Amino acid sequence: MTTSAATPIDVLGPLDRSVDWPRLAAEHWDRRPVLLRPGRGAGPGRGAAPFDPNEVFEGAVAAAQHATAGADDRVLFTVGPRRLTEPGDLLPRPEDGSFAAYDRRLETRLGDTDFALVVRELHAGHHPLWIRERDFLAGLWDEVGQPLAAIGTTLCHGTSAPPRTTASHHRAATFLYTLHGRHRIHLTGPGDRRWAATTVPGDLLYWPADHAYTVPAPYTARSPGTAVHISVPREPSYAFDPPYRASALAPADTLVPDGDPTDDLPATLPPVLSAALAHLRQESGPERLHRRLAREALRHATDGGLRPVPPPTRPGYFTDDDAVRATERVLWAPVDRHRLVAACGHVTRTGLTARELSALVGRLNGGEPLPVGELTPSARRLVARLAGFRAVERL
Questions:
Q1: How many alpha carbons fall within 13 Å on the CB side of residue 239?
Q2: Which of 46, 77, 319, 338 gets the most CB atoms within 10 Å of its CB?
Q3: 46 — phi, psi (to 5°)?
Q4: How are beta strands 34-38 and 10-15 bridged, if at all?
């Protein structure tokens, strides 16, 4: 790590096992940048690292496989100054196996032409990556609280400065984790205070939301670099994102004509508006609203702030001879005549009584093995669903 600035960047480390989150929260969070440096031998994917290189590559492959040509801002690919709307096989593929092999394949196609790959919501398509990042950030949430707004995870890989992605409406603090190459960053804080940093693999650089960052121009890299940005919103947000915001609506006086109404106005709303109004009244009723808030609260309590979460797999299939145990914490809440159960950011509903569910969840969260043959049909269905959430495994 090298710096050249009037204000030196603090360095915390070497970090062998975990980040000193209490110290970071007390001395740097929302205050000034800091570099978290790994200990000797604790390279990318080890110790206090939030990411593993193999998982990051697999997450990029998963995103590339689900990208919609020309319509998905989640995956961006540029060659020189041009963004390709249909990059095709220039994106990572499963047979590449690693960033190194992927880079060799691109070199045969692009030669010395610079390229950049950007993947937003990287955690959304790879469960092990999501788990690792969630567990890493859990120590920070213990100190500063988990934001209501979703945490962003963005991969930047290539030999040129990455293209800017669509800006979030949230002010966000940033962690920059370097996996490959050297990354030069210029930071500008309040009062025009400036920092310059060059990170190497294993470094984790933090800067507050009120600090702007730039990549020095011209950007030059002898070999492709890889870094992942974690964006942490630093302002109040909705518990769940509505389809629109009140501030985006037109003022009432622009929706009503001036003067007296004309004689040809219909006595009733058009059918499509009448149906929409009825749906709004139904969904905003106390029971529906309570159910939705309960679901969102359970998701927030189990997703670690990393939304969207990876999709669930198929429900598990167990025989009477199987035994299962929980691999993740399971939460539940009573809603109407049913109970909602959540794990890993997913929520399902069960007909188990509160007493039955409390006993089952208590055994799961206590680490107790559960013989499947002893479970009631309703409990077995719930356990199968939790297995699809990756919260229960067969012993």
A1: 12
A2: 77
A3: -120, 160
A4: parallel
Which residues does 163 contact at the CB level (< 8 Å), separation at least 6? 76, 78, 83, 116, 118
What 3-state DSSP class applies to 269? coil
What are the strands, taking DSSP E only, across the chain?
2-3, 10-15, 34-38, 75-79, 82-83, 115-119, 152-158, 172-180, 183-188, 194-199, 204-207, 212-214, 225-233, 323-326, 331-335, 338-343, 346-350, 370-371, 392-394
Asked whether the beta carbons of 124 and 310 are under 8 A apart, the reply is yes
Longest Cα separation, the chain: 82
pLDDT digits (tens, 9 = 90+) for 166-225: 444 458 999 999 999 988 888 999 988 898 888 999 999 999 999 998 876 555 567 899
pLDDT tens-digit map of 38-74: 866 554 444 468 999 999 999 999 999 887 644 567 8
Gap between the Cα atoms of 168 and 233, Å rounded = 9
Give CA 133 to chain center in angstroms: 9
* Among 337, 390, 329, CA closest to 138: 329
Question: CB-based burial of residue 225 (10 Å sphere; 0-12 exposed, 13-18 middle, 19+ buried)?
Answer: buried
